[in-house]
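Morning!

As promised:
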Amino acid sequence: MPQPKAPSPRTTVKRIPQRANYESETIYQILDEGLVCHIGFIADGQPVVIPTAYGRVEDTLYIHGSPASRMLRSLQQGIDVCITVTLIDGLVLARSAFHHSMNYRSVVIFGKATLIEDAAQKLAALQAFTEHIILGRWQEVRSPNHQELSRTIVLSLPLTEASAKIRTGGPIDDELDYQIPVWAGEIPLKFTAAVPINDAKLAPNIAVPTNLKNYTRPQKLD
Amino acid sequence: MPQPKAPSPRTTVKRIPQRANYESETIYQILDEGLVCHIGFIADGQPVVIPTAYGRVEDTLYIHGSPASRMLRSLQQGIDVCITVTLIDGLVLARSAFHHSMNYRSVVIFGKATLIEDAAQKLAALQAFTEHIILGRWQEVRSPNHQELSRTIVLSLPLTEASAKIRTGGPIDDELDYQIPVWAGEIPLKFTAAVPINDAKLAPNIAVPTNLKNYTRPQKLD
């Protein structure tokens, strides 16, 4: 059972600290449900935020991309990075404009990335990316060949310095506002899949697999 | 009709430039559909990425929050900021692991934020936040009072230096891989609303309004 994270000065949630969560299991669940992280780094003295896919293996986050990517070339120098994953769970509608809010779960990670040079570790990370998106997909598709591996940079970031922030529940209105005759409550939001679209070049005898017909986040073993 | 943005060195899309889009209308559509932006700034020499709500009025983005927020206190000093909004439109499943991708629309904005001090402009920005989430809501709820306004910081950021990046369509496989007998195509993803949950203190005679029963993004005038 993973231990709770020890909050660092950077990961200690200061605003509304009752929403903070430092449990590794909670952090993992949020990361496993998200599809895209937002990577913040400093380039030429200025902040840059780029969305990208990711994968997780135990207490390590992996990102990847082309050797031509400025972000990856910068990060592999070991500069400071901040990676944030946000899930929006609902809209919170109060009786006053001021008390409107959103329900969300977010994870903020600080650290420095490390280039993965070991071939086996690199392949394991790429497997984690694919499986993060669709469980079981890695076994079904062609694995990366030597040329593809050399055209892919994989970086790792330890989840040592990470924290979660979570808001749940309905609105909290000022006492006098409860008499305002307007609907109040929560609109839950969910990321859902529509009907899969066959590739134009798909062979006619290949049907959509069941796990893709009923695609949900996070991907879970039955 | 708004003009296309002139790409700056910071907003010129370098990786896969054929995905770049500098049209103001495209940028506005992505911003109007999103609910949360990721704000990147430098604090104590290190990058920080924080998710937050936002609103747009013409060529200006507004963010807001508590005077106790370190992010807002930092940004109102006029430091460099990067704000990114990402919409995930689908998973792209190829026959090789390497060619898996996602369809997405993202906007990246660079600039410096300005504190809104004029009371009327501040109120207009707060109206934009509420209307960004639910069109028509502002008229139905109690407007911010003097105390709430003083407890809210609103910052503006011009959309002068902004660009979009968009991927659409199915997978593109290597020629030899088309013979692999695996399903390939796109799984469209959408942010959808579930049944609204009444606030526990809702008066029994208040029904869920139609626009909330059928909530979709972006919010549109009929």
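Chain B touches chain A through 93 residues (CB under 8 Å).

Hope this helps with the figure draft.
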